[in-house]
């Protein structure tokens, strides 16, 4: 014993049995060596004087064998029983339990007492089964791995003594393969079955379900039990379609939220991955939906960029803000319409109206109530979006409507200040007042025939020319007497000034008889007599 670095006991007499010193015992011992077990171990063998006669370390390979079947010397058979993985023992084997009076020619002399320093590395038995321990499992698990599924998982792989041999984490890439098709060792094929996406497992695989007698390269020795710590990232089957596991309310966050911008696209035109094309079919306005897309309906084996790995199952949490078809018209809903409605507005009429404008999800954009007076516009002059112009036509004063305006009749794909691109808009509109307009290109029309000798009547002081003051006074008198009307405007003085500028063709500040012409004199159109 003194040779082994333990207190000497003097000169003992002949040993009757193996002397065992368990000088290191691991805190956790899940299994002890029993008769008939297969084991793997390292050892150094010396004589009493410390001379080494054999070492598995020197050969660079562990020893594998079966305990208790006569393949080992009797002293080693006895000395290894009860050992745990990673336990270390000193063994003293007397000659009659070693190589006896014969020894081993050239290596071990007759009647030699043998000293062994042993570390146990692996224990298994032919009756062993796969050992699967669930370390963590998601609360929701709608589906588990089945044979023929394609899986993506991370793993750390060690031998039973804790020696690492491989890790997907060190490669910064999942291990991707099919289950049950012979691409994996049998133990891993079995150990992955029944797993949920996001589940963590410890899988201990005996050698006959792993790499067996041959081992694998230089990292996995023959007859090695393997321990895998596995995290299943996702899985799918090549026959899978999309799945929609979640409908209804709930808080979502993700890429479009971080950009603070909706994702806008057409459905069914190949602009998005096929799985999302399918997953958005049938959604309602405001609906929240989770769409799980297998890789063959997403980005396939190659993935996309640095963020989507190959063969990845994708999960989209989607909130539908709005949708429309490029052929959609303005949707008009009448909330209130007065009974005495004789003259609804037409193109070129001047209207005043109040409105509230929002997105379909209720996000408020604009309101005329934020200002001191209603909005004003001449219909058909392209001063408001086409959809709003359409929605104001044929309204009665006092009528209230809700208008749903698709983007091609609103602000289009580009949007506008405060309006997102491709946004469907909702207007609540109330018509406040209406003034009958004039035809396009006209600033003033007479209700009947224009005055005869028009120039003489405009030339109030009869000096042969019409300055701006005389022109303005004449037009205002015609309007006051109900003989004609100006183009509706919030600034009639500007309309009259524009009329005078049109007639003052040489821009000398006065109209001559040669300059004054009716519009019918210019374009030969006699629909109206006007200036």
UniProtKB/TrEMBL annotation:
Catalytic activity: [protein]-peptidylproline (omega=180) = [protein]-peptidylproline (omega=0)
E.C. numbers: 5.2.1.8
Region of interest: Disordered: 483-531
Residue ranges of the TM segments: none
UniProt-annotated location(s): Endoplasmic reticulum
Biased composition annotated in UniProt, kind: Basic and acidic residues: 491-531
EF-hand domain ranges (all copies): 453-481, 491-526
GO cellular component: endoplasmic reticulum
Keywords: Calcium, Endoplasmic reticulum, Glycoprotein, Isomerase, Metal-binding, Repeat, Rotamase, Signal
Record-linked SUPFAM superfamilies: EF-hand, FKBP-like
Record Gene3D superfamilies: 3.10.50.40, EF-hand (1.10.238.10)
MF annotations from Gene Ontology: calcium ion binding; peptidyl-prolyl cis-trans isomerase activity
Residue intervals of the PPIase FKBP-type domain: 36-124, 148-236, 241-324, 348-435
InterPro entries: EF-hand-dom_pair (IPR011992), EF_Hand_1_Ca_BS (IPR018247), EF_hand_dom (IPR002048), FKBP-like_isomerase (IPR051989), PPIase_dom_sf (IPR046357), PPIase_FKBP_dom (IPR001179)
Keyword presence, Metal-binding: yes
Main location as per UniProt: endoplasmic reticulum
Superkingdom assignment: Eukaryota
Keyword Isomerase: yes
Task of the protein: PPIases accelerate the folding of proteins during protein synthesis.
This protein's name: peptidylprolyl isomerase
Gene name in the database record: Fkbp10
